[in-house]
Fold each of these.
Amino acid sequence: MNITIFGATGKVGQALVREALNRGHDITAVVRDASRLKIEHERLHVVEGNLLDPATVERNAKGREAVISAYGPKPGEEEELLEAARSLIEGVRRSGTKRLLVVGGAGSLLTDDGTRLMDTPSFPEEWFPLAAAHADAYVIYSRSDLDWTYLSPAAALEDGPRSGNFRIGIDRLITDELGSSRITIADLAAALVDELEDPYFVRSRFTVGY
């Protein structure tokens, strides 16, 4: 496939680039600073651009089979997450591409008692603004007319190997037998590229964990 990835310089974005390249896809990585992407490959094309500009999104999405966003704002810039969601939807729609896959947040996933993770007493207070912004962005994507997919990770995103062995859910936080909710970044990337190649969660959300 020919796909475009926004947010390719972050940990999740770089893992997605590597996973997609390893599977033979052609990647256009749209980044603010090309020098920050330390991956070179004949099927990787790096261009500088601003995700918050719908015209940039349109230009780099046109003619692609799918667009992926792994964008995550810095603390204090949570409002940019909502601006990015609107820009992505507008730009992808203008481009004529229908498929949009987004790596979002875990905060709006439901725990066993039906409470959102972000509303539980143990959720770190300093993370709440970002979790709330991700939750609001999810609503924006869910109301779009694109063939969107929103991936919420487990509560803890970790460095570690790609196992290709994880569980998949929809709106509930996945926990292991010890009550821990975790996934490696490499396996998160594998799960999203699985969905890219074999769509199942079109116009819906899914989550992964061990």
Amino acid sequence: MGDLAKAVADLEEEVEDVRELRKIMERLDTEIATRMDEIETIGSAALEIHGDLDNQIAEYDYMAVEQSLAHLRGLVDMEEVLPSIDAVLLLTALRDDEPVPDLALPLSLFENGGSWEHPRLSQEDLDREFKATLTRADQRWEEIWGDHAWADPDERDSQWAEDRADTEREAIKDRAHRAGNHLRELVDYIGDTLWPDLVEAVEAGDRARAVRVLAAACAAARETEPAYKLYEVNLSAQYESSPMSLGAMGEFLSDYETWLLSPKAE
């Protein structure tokens, strides 16, 4: 009976070891799933921000636009995201009894310099298209009115000045609209192009690729800051050209400006 009791005890010990191992595996699976969910959620949040921007830009709510972009930059933060990526890769390697990945960080990828493929737009780009729009409008005006018999030359000049002013206001509005679209393009590039690639790289255990994609996302997120300044400058130009073209926001700003400039009772 002694041998039998010892065999039973050994078997029970093995069963207990299996149970502990199963608990460890379950904890690993849970932790991996949690970290992957954190990573995937960032992509979903970026797409939600894109949707918010659609409404905010349409309503000329530039303050909300600025807050949304700041929120995006907080989400796409190397110091926050990379630990989750490495945790998934390390825990997966331990669970699957595979070699531990090299977690060395190529910091050069995250420097502000470097060439990235994210959407780009400058004031020079906007001004060049603005001038081209005015030039095309002048040519169309001449095609329509050039052969018209004007009773009074002053009437021609007056009509041209009126039409040119309308065209310029529309071109200024379109310039601000393009700057707003650029913000949406940057956010969409992060959420719809880069992030699915990052998730795929992490799931494949490819840290080098995941880090490269994360660096590209961080660069695109940084770009939203100067891109917002570009948007703000051109939206201000639109307001100066035609305050009411900003809808309710333009009316609010105009009323506020009037209040600021009005004489105050002592």
